[in-house]
Amino acid sequence: MFFFLSKTLSYLVMPLTIIAVFLLMSRLVTNILWRKGLLWSAIVLFFLFTNGFIANELMKRWEVDPRAYDTMHHYKLGIVLTGTVIPELKPSDRVYFSRGADRIVHTVQLYKLGLIDKILVSGGSARIIDIEEREADSFRDVMLLMGVPDSVIMVENETRNTHESAIEVKNILKRSGYTAEDCLLITSAFHMRRSLACYEKVGLSIDPFSTDFYAHQSTYYPDAFLIPKLDALIIWHKLVHEWVGLAAYWIAGYV
Fold first, then answer.
1. Please, what are the domains in the chain?
2. CA geometry: angle at 136 spanning 5 and 83, to 5°?
3. What is the mean pLDDT of the chain?
């Protein structure tokens, strides 16, 4: 039940959902003052959630900062989390990514630069209705195409969320003789805070390596403040999803 709620609850409080509800209610209520209030609330929220400057500033403060390669020390194992593959697209002779392919590209780069010795890919199917496709297997296939030896890659392909990943990865590290200090956690910058919290909850304090950044350098041109931006809505979608997910994990005792 928690898995189902954690996957669906955030969609009920997404910006577009809230705006749509306000607009719908403004047509249904009979009180004129309420109708005007709901309509103007929807308009104000639309401009708030599509404001590129506000969305970018919030995301900049939420994302965990990148690390330069020349400032990093060597790690025995890079743990890369999945969550970027589009399932069930045809033809099935390739891997389809939404965003977040940086998780793979930068992991391979870390390996080829000699900053990590081995790679552990963690993640199965995060869909409510399980399918046979496992994202970790897709990640492995792409890494092999990019020249990473099969002997370097370990796969954990049964976990459905970050909490389960942290538990299973801890077991794998214990069996393989790795400590938290040997490892580097690799995931999207917007997802890093929740990931670190889940791993710390199970006793793994792992250094982060953020990828797939949504925020950019701040700009102060008029269009950043005045012109509605679709990208701003996408950023809000990611932020709300992470905030609701973190709150749900806290209630469940996962962080």
1. 2-63+228-252 (no CATH), 69-211 (3.40.50.620)
2. 40
3. 92
